[in-house]
Amino acid sequence: MYQIIPQQISQSKRKEVNAKILSAIESGNGAISAEEVYNQYTGIGGLHELKQADFSSYHDFAQAKREAEMGQFFTPHEICSQMVEAIKPQPNEMVMDMCCGMGNFFNFLPNQHNVYGFDIDPDAVRVAKYLYPNANIQVANLCTHNPEERFDIVIGNPPFNLDFDGIQSQFYYCNKAYWMLKPSGLLMMIVPVSFLQNEFWQRPKVNAMNRDFSFIGQTKLAADAFKSVGVEKFETKIMVFMRESKNIEMNPYNAEEFVSMEKLTTRIAQAKGITEESKLQIRQETKEEISAESREFEYKLKKYLYEIKTHKSLEKHYDKALALVAKFRNQRPPEGCTLDEHKAWEKRKLTYNKVLAVLKRYIKNQNVVHRKEIALVKTQNGFKLKGYAPHLLDKVAVKSVSLNDILSVGAKLPRPEKMTAKLRRQYVAVERFIERKRNEYKLQSRSFETMQRDEALDTKIQSLTFYNKDMQACSFTELQQHDMGLVFQKRYALLNWQQGSGKTAVAYHYGKHREPHTKNTVILAPAIAIHLTWEPFLQRHGERYIIASKPEHLVNVPKGAFILLSLTMISELVGPLKEFMKVRSNKICLLFDESDEITNPSAKRTRQSLNIFRRAKFKLLATGTTTRNNIGELYSQFELLYNNSVNMMCNAYNVYFQNKDGAIESKTNDRYREPFPARGGAVLFKACFCPGKASVFGIEKQNQDVYNQEHLAALIEKSIITRKFKEFAGEKYEIINYTVTPSDGERAVYRTILEKFHEILHFYFNPIADKKKESQLNLVRQIQLLIKACSVPHKMSGYFGCGYPQKAITIEHKLRYELKGKVAIGCTSLDAVELRL
């Protein structure tokens, strides 16, 4: 064990000292002792030589700094000693240090032969190998290295706040540790205090940790713990977890609980004592985990190889089968490959299932009689030629085509050299199918302004009526009938009519119009719209309907019945709803009321709605506000309408993004004249039409600028009909605004809320345990109080003067002397409702 000798190496000298140490190790002349190397080498952390003034924002500066340092800050020797002393590894236990750097933890471990480590920095690994020649250390990337061994302990200091495939580096480290540890193995690591700091804001990550690990404890380190490697002040902590096992009781993570190092050491000892009592069961569990899949593979492999070797009709495949198995067992990623190259190798490498599938295909096809026949068959995305014997399609250049290419660019069906009578009949049927799809595509692609009228449909619409709340039969206005005549011709449309324009009645008749071609109509809407609008409306019209709130409600639904589904119930009924759609072959008419509820493509509600209803045969979306903040919010509604099909083409030649200087730049669109993809489509849509800009804090900020306007306009004009209420009602209604000047007492309430909010907060809101969450809520609470102060200021702190606010006095005067007939008064709170004038 090397002795810890305190060093005073200035920040300016660190780089020079590191270079001398590496040179001495390379030369092998022994100019510097191993103990001097141990105490003086400090790595590249803090030596980036970057200046914040050279970057447009701190976010860009921090990102460049992390990339230069690779998150490398060696753990001080004293902390390594404390951590190893706390976890007390035994000589027979296997220990792994991922991202080991120069191997500072190794100095205190009892058996160097059972120590494993790797790091991406070759210089750090060279130093570690020099200091610990008996340890198993190599240069490797955390993202690509997958050792075959399983370990009892993973101890280390992962890189902080790097981005690994969209995952925070500390959390990626935990995921990797899970697969490297044996059941009930220990994970001990140093992380920033901000990691899993809040169970509310980081709920998905906390849930994942609780699923994979049992929490033992955590303790804070001094803020200047990493001062020796150039970090003057940074709060960190030590966290200890035990990998899940069916032989231990799982303890959930507690973000608020911190203990002393002594208490943490006691907890670790208690946890190890529990595993020691069940070590035989845990050893069996480890063996089962490692060998279960392998054992099944080996059994099937022997079985298939035996069949191939012993049957005369399969003997010809035996050598190929052995070669495939040998290739599988000996495959390795390319030496020194990049991360992208390793990902590509991971995709094409042989797996258990791939090997078994080839061998099974040999056996399955042993009695297949090849026939010299070619058929035109439908695939998931288009059509292809299929040969039922080898080499029949060798001279055919194009063997498949997608339906998107046929409809959008006029691609032709692939054709063989010779046409048989049977094949000719197949082509006739396919051409008939394509012609129908082409006509639908042309109709769907026309803007509503250029569409032609359908006289028969217009006559039908003129005869349609609906019942209002007083059970009076009402007809549609000429403008409503005009829009209905256009919308009813299309399979997919979005009705953007302002509130009170009759969207409910139009959507109802759209569903009835499509009823002969569907099995049921699903009405998806917020709960308040389901119970206060749709349920009474269907009752007045004598329709059969089911309010879906349980899985059994979706079983044996009669044909023609309406299904009322609130958005809040989707997450509870995902499985039953998918089964409902599958049983009916997606022959469903979807009526989505208030479709602006899915403007956020990342929201769980949006993803579930798309997952269930994207393949519905007919879809009508209705909302008064298609967007709330920016044009990018249209994307999810378009995706639900068109299911990323040829009707949703990305025709923008250029896409736009923000460069490092903060300016918007353009580049060629890689997906030009392709449908917006299901994965990453929202990002592409924003890049085409409304690129975001990063604020000084690195947060993306959306703006109102619109790019590629002609292509966006074409998509909107063929999909959306927009009307204001005034277009239907005309000048029948007049809006008159009255200005009310607040009294001095009311102004005093406003000042109190703005200037003394924290003093009066506890009068109106209950405190919550999560202080971070409470601080985030305070701004919203302040706005809520200001809104309330505009309604009932006389009931709030700081008010003086008359017993009623000026607004109430004005309303009373209008009621007594000016307004005649029935008057409705809107209230923003229960206190305002209870106000007696």
TrEMBL record:
Single biological process term from Gene Ontology: methylation
Which residue ranges does the record assign to the Helicase ATP-binding domain?
484-644
Tell me which SUPFAM superfamilies the record gives: P-loop containing nucleoside triphosphate hydrolases, S-adenosyl-L-methionine-dependent methyltransferases
UniProt keyword list:
Methyltransferase, Restriction system, Transferase
InterPro entries named in the record:
DNA_methylase_A-5 (IPR003356), DNA_methylase_N6_adenine_CS (IPR002052), Helicase_ATP-bd (IPR014001), P-loop_NTPase (IPR027417), SAM-dependent_MTases_sf (IPR029063), SNF2-like_sf (IPR038718)
Supply one GO molecular-function term. Answer: N-methyltransferase activity
- The answer to whether the entry has keyword Chaperone is no
Pfam families for the chain = N6_Mtase (PF02384)
Which SMART domains does the record cross-reference, listed alphabetically?
Answer: DEXDc
The signal peptide here is: none
Sequence similarity: Belongs to the N(4)/N(6)-methyltransferase family.
User: Which PANTHER family does the record associate with it?
Assistant: TRANS-ACONITATE 2-METHYLTRANSFERASE, TRANS-ACONITATE 2-METHYLTRANSFERASE-RELATED
* Name this protein carries in UniProt: DNA methylase
- Organism in which the protein naturally occurs: Mucinivorans hirudinis
What's the source species' lineage?
Bacteria, Pseudomonadati, Bacteroidota, Bacteroidia, Bacteroidales
